[in-house]
Design brief:
59% of the residues lie in helices and 0% in strands. The protein starts with 10 loop residues before the first helix and ends with a helix. By secondary structure, it is mostly helical. The mean pLDDT is 81. The protein has two domains: 70 residues; 34 residues.
Length: 132
């Protein structure tokens, strides 16, 4: 099958990829991207996407995406992956003061309120369920 995105690496890029693999420098994803790029190199082994995916235990689409990123965005982007525009948000700090009993009670109350919107005494349920 004719490939739309052909990987052609320079000698410097090949050496950098080999260095990443040899030293296991960076994340496991970065090492896998380096392995994929080396095997996909048209001037090197030139493996098929299916063979690369099988060898490195990933999907064929992953190999295709790495090829595409190299051609479209350049070597650094292909090796390091797509950078986040903003850091991930953590919500664990919002309820860090709750212990597991309070969490279960709160979730049960929310479920009860959703199920029966006309509850007369929602605090009574909380009292019986969450008191020691």
């Amino acid at each position: 099958m004719h490939k739309k995105y052909i990987v052609r690496l320079t000698n410097e890029e090949r050496e950098r990829l080999r260095s990443v693999i040899k030293k296991l420098k960076g994340s496991s994803q970065k090492v896998r991207r380096a392995q994929v790029l080396l095997k996909a190199d048209a001037d090197g082994p030139g493996w098929t996407d299916a063979r690369i995916a099988e060898a490195f235990d990933c999907r064929t689409k992953t190999v295709e995406n790495i090829r595409q990123r190299l051609v479209r965005d350049g070597f650094e982007s292909a090796l390091n992956g797509k950078q986040r525009e903003s850091p991930p948000v953590s919500y664990t700090h919002l309820r860090a003061h709750e212990n597991s009993l309070h969490l279960v009670c709160r979730l049960l109350l929310e479920k009860k309120k959703k199920k029966n919107k006309t509850t007369r005494h929602p605090n009574m349920l909380h009292y019986f369920m969450c008191s020691p």
